[in-house]
Write a structure and sequence with these properties.
heterotetramer, A: about 325 residues, alpha/beta, Rossmann fold, 2 domains, 7-stranded mixed β-sheet, about 35% helix, globular, B: about 325 residues, 5-stranded parallel β-sheet, two-stranded antiparallel ribbon, 12 helices, 7 strands, binds thiamine diphosphate, binds magnesium ion
């Protein structure tokens, strides 16, 4: 973040709301669009009070037409607007996949830079609240292989605010993932306008024995695991990726080269997800420094079941990270 | 409508209301995971549909169709309580707790399952209808959707393909006036959904969804048409949902009063029965029976064990195993 | 229509025909990469649209709109040949050869680019229209789509949103009777696309797309309506494409004869001009001029260098670099 | 493949056409559906003559409604049919992404096994013919992170036939990728009905020094590279993955453990694609056998540009595989 230092304790919902408010103040070309985001303030209350302040035109309710919502954003961006869409649940991105992947993400390239898809798609993702198979998914894996798209995934209120403002400022299409389980989590949030640069990871906790790379809800889990293991004499470094595409490989690689051990934690299924991408990159770039294979923490290779008991079995938590770190620590030192 | 039909539908409506009210109070107590949408206020539409759909038909319920699901499950399988158990996420649920409120299915009851991506089964229903047509089965393939869901492009892809292929598809559009918070006339070019459906050239009818006699007759007409091989049919039920937002009521008091007090499906049907000679006691008895049944279903759900942990990784593929993580 | 307008449109139509025929012959020689769809036969519809769209408007061309693109590029930027160069994949193309036939754009000519996922810009056009409305600009935002493309759900999402927001959207549906091989009446519940559009409540007009006077008047009417702030407008142009399948002609000979000989846009316009006193020589002169222009454009395209290799990895992101692989 | 031995030289288009024909004969519940697949025989001629043989009902033309096409398949499969859809170009899968990912792939799981999404989605993918950004993509990366979906990707006519028949027999939803550049490629194809099992890779060429894992068009490129390097004394093993999800890790791992060196070749962009998944898996499971990091051959992280010259720059070819193998061979032996 830039310069602001005065902070205030706030939930992630409020931090995002603030970022939207500040963005609307700063950019006359910005508008909000989505289902019931206006007077109602959105399904999770993220846009609350913005309709009252900015009105129908700039806080625009839509019918249940996800493809048209994103298409509208792309078109508006083509003529210099900065639309910010809310897709109520990330699971619904399947309906506007074409618009995101073939339209927004390719626009700038295929028309030789003549248009900018300066739009943000905010959406609530992740499991853990009994939402079942269509309201719980971690969808970053759907979009990882899509050049031209930026994927942002904050883990705490301060980053959420700074990253969202950076996303709004960005001239690229940004998929902004808001983990539902983090909405009510609290943290110190700087007041006023600031941006947290896209494409940069944060070292959420410094350590020397093992690096845990995590995103969104896995970050607090990893920090909890690190805290638990600190008592056992294991020094865990937690890297919060923050931007998933294009991601900050430098910070990840530097950390793993230093610690020689890597755990990658990711809520989505393991096959073909962010965990694979990170594991591949670390394995390739830290080949000579790694004491042992990258240890993975992933969701099960299943949809998300409804029942609490079953959902709990397919989603990773602090325990899984703790055992992954322990496993990594059994690897013999290999001298960095 | 004759008294025995009306009486049976009256019981069905009470079962729905008792189901949803029982569920709502369990939800408030924290006993039901996830989200809750109820069919309260839409009992006549739901009872009319349930009464005309056979076990060999196929319907796709939406998020407010617990009542239809329960009636179908009870009538065709004798175990309506398994719908309740599913909502509690229990092993005795129709999907062993894997689906929940938004994904309950039992094809042997004609219930082909909700898809919580609103409108997506507008496409799926085509395949069930097409298969029936190819096989010469007299199946009605019914998609039950809300007014808001009409915003999805797949609504139109579906109507168009049903039309060109003359499929046995029943579109049951439940126009309860709102999509979450958005009034139907704000979300659509017309507040009358049939205006958006008429272009496809098959019969479209708008009906009072709180008038059980009208609703039942309309569904019967539509099913006859479809079973007669005459292709798709579109019904729009004008009704209203009791449930406001999770945060409370947002609709004008007059509107609330009208629908809950003047134009309530159960009150209106009760009045008709009284015209036919029923007493208040007779009516109350029906309500009481429904509430007893639902109480026992809730009991059953609560006492049922949680799903077998093996279910978590079972059935991802039909042909491959997934190992527990 | 007065003679000078007709004369100018007649030239435009010849430019389109010469463009497509020149392109086709270069394609056959293997000089044009990728696939080729031409606007041959649809010159009147295209000329009518091009004549009424200003540089400050925004139109989304489809795969047959090389002609519109060339006219717009020539009129508004003075460099129509850059459309030709784009189709050849050359550095001098409007997108430096990165887009090609299916992705040519130049917003300064009002050309907002084809999207080869047919129908997807039915959604995009909403945003351009909405922005114009929010800014109070008198822009027409126009989506040009074929009859087949109407099958996409986004067609309806778009019409609905244009209607409820009263957007300045012009829908120009080019009904040429077929989607690849599928006749319009087989793909849609109605062979008249306006039947599927009328439910949205804004003006829908069907017009002879090969009658330049009728087509031009219709576009003018629609643009006046839209620029007057009265919301969206739907035009269906009844026309026919010369191009059959890549493998040849598949349509009945009578139909082919009718459209190519009896109801050809250029022949009909020529006949009108002759009524106004033109001679065959006058007509031929226009054709000759068009062919000369196109010959020079093809020459230009062929002589232009291929794109700078740096373009391969340029502009993936506006804010991040991608390194060459 | 099973038992048939009599073979005949045939293109991949013909081999697929044969499989469809044999499937239609064997399974009365099978039908074909897609745009212009009937009398016209499909945009690439893959369904040629099947309409004449099986008629309108079983070879069904559709309007341009990709979401409804896949929805129709799912619904039909729910009641025991075996629909095989053709989506003309893989790029169009974005429009039916929701149907594939949230409906077909989750159906069996979320309804507790009560429905089987026994459907096949055939589609033409890949670049190299000037198709531009919307007709050239390799889309397997869009679907890698989707449990419940099977992804099949043949590299030669014989496999295409056997894998397609296995896909038709399968009770899972199969995304069947047909690389356009392979359509006209020829190979010996066994006559009659046979299946090639899903989920099994093939060793396309045995070797001892280095393993190249490849799919689709990368397989002939890898074989060409292997042939070239054989002359230079390098023994290259080429593993053709054939099924991308769930994939045959055993064959891959066994091979790399034996050779100690791995190259992964993939036409799609590198980030978050199949290359990452394979590299991660190999790096983790062959940690102690690998002489050096897995070497990657990927498409550029860009959309596919139109111009021949530019397209050539973003797609990998034999040359890239040759240099990747050379790079792998510079890695010091590490004793398996
Ligand atoms: C594709 C999709 N978009 C949004 C939602 C979120 N959502 C759930 S219910 C609902 C409103 C649906 O309105 P309507 O169809 O009228 O049904 P009602 O709740 O009024 O019965 C919305 C927007 C969803 N589930 N799926
Ligand atoms: C979404 C999508 N589906 C299919 C195609 C393949 N395709 C290209 S043109 C075409 C036919 C379009 O028909 P129509 O809209 O009538 O245009 P016409 O070619 O007749 O002008 C099809 C199916 C595509 N490009 N995009
Ligand atoms: Mg509603
Ligand atoms: Mg057409």
């Amino acid at each position: 973040m830039n310069t602001e230092t005065k902070t205030r304790k706030s939930t992630m919902v409020k931090a995002i709301n603030q970022a939207l408010d500040l963005g609307m103040e700063a950019f006359p070309e910005m508008f909000l669009i989505g289902e019931d985001i206006g007077e109602m303030g959105g399904d999770f209350g993220v846009t609350r009070k913005l309709w009252a302040k900015y009105g129908n035109e700039r806080v625009r309710d839509t019918p249940l037409s996800e493809a048209a919502i994103i298409g509208t954003c792309v078109g508006a961006a083509m003529v210099g607007m900065r639309p910010v869409a809310e897709i109520m649940f990330a699971d619904f991105l399947g309906e506007c996949y074409d618009q995101i992947v073939n339209n927004a993400a390719k626009m700038h390239y295929m028309f030789d830079g003549q248009f900018k898809a300066s739009l943000v798609i905010r959406t609530a993702c992740g499991g853990g609240f009994g939402g079942g198979p269509h309201h719980s998914q971690s969808v970053e894996g759907w979009f990882l292989n899509v050049p031209g798209l930026v994927i942002v995934a904050p883990s705490n209120p301060a980053d959420a605010k700074g990253l969202l403002l950076a996303s709004i400022e960005s001239d690229d299409p940004v998929l902004f993932l808001e983990h539902k389980a983090l909405y009510r989590s609290k943290g110190e949030v700087p007041e006023g306008y600031y941006t947290t640069p896209l494409g940069t990871a944060a070292v959420a906790r410094a350590g020397t024995d093992v690096t845990v790379v995590a995103t969104m809800r896995m970050v607090p889990f990893a920090l909890e695991a690190a805290e638990m293991l600190a008592g056992k004499g294991v020094s865990v470094e937690v890297v919060d990726l923050r931007t998933i595409r294009p991601y900050d490989a430098d910070t990840v690689i530097e950390s793993v080269r230093r610690t020689g051990r890597a755990v990658v934690a990711n809520e989505a299924p393991g096959i073909g997800g962010l965990g694979s991408e990170l594991s591949a990159r670390i394995s390739q770039d830290c080949f000579h420094q790694l004491a042992g294979p990258v240890v993975r923490v992933d969701g099960a290779d299943t949809p998300i079941p409804f029942s609490d008991e079953l959902e709990h079995l397919v989603l990773p938590g602090t325990d899984h990270i703790v055992s992954a770190i322990r496993r990594a620590m059994t690897q013999p030192d290999r001298g960095a | 409508m004759d008294e025995s039909t009306l009486s049976s539908l009256y019981s069905d409506m009470w079962l729905i209301r008792a189901f949803e009210q029982g569920l709502e109070s369990e939800f408030e107590k924290g006993n039901v995971p996830g989200m809750l949408h109820t069919g309260l206020g839409q009992e006549a539409t739901q009872a009319a549909l349930a009464a005309n759909l056979e076990a060999t038909d196929a319907y796709f319920p939406d998020h407010r169709c617990h009542g239809i699901n329960a009636l179908a499950q009870q009538r065709h399988r004798g175990d309506g309580r398994r719908i309740m158990a599913e909502l509690f996420g229990r092993s005795t649920g129709v999907c062993s707790g894997k689906g929940g409120s938004l994904h309950s299915a039992d094809p042997r009851a004609g219930n082909y399952g909700d898809n919580a991506i609103e409108g997506s089964y507008m496409a799926t229903v085509l395949g069930v209808a097409l298969a029936a047509k190819m096989r010469g089965e007299p199946k009605v393939a019914c998609a039950i959707i809300g007014d808001g869901t009409v915003g999805r492009g797949e609504f139109h892809e579906s109507l168009n393909m049903s039309a060109i292929w003359e499929l046995p598809t029943l579109y049951a559009c439940v126009n309860n006036g709102y999509a979450i918070f958005t009034p139907v006339g704000k979300g659509h070019a017309s507040a009358n959904i049939i205006d958006l459906a008429r272009g496809y050239g098959f019969p479209c009818e708008q009906v009072d969804g709180n008038d059980i006699e009208a609703a039942h007759a309309a569904v019967l007409r539509a099913c006859d048409h479809i079973r007669g091989g005459k292709g798709p049919y579109f019904l729009e039920f004008m009704t209203w949902r009791w449930q406001g937002l999770f945060t409370g009521e947002f609709r004008p008091p007059d509107e609330v009063r009208y629908w809950r007090e003047e134009h309530d499906a159960i009150l209106m049907a009760g009045a008709r029965l009284k015209e036919m000679g029923w007493t208040d006691d007779d009516l109350e008895k029906v309500e009481g029976e429904a509430r007893d049944i639902i109480e026992s279903w809730i009991e059953f759900a609560k006492e049922s064990p949680p799903p077998d942990p093996a279910k978590a990784t079972a059935d991802v593929y039909a042909g491959f195993e997934v190992s527990p993580s």
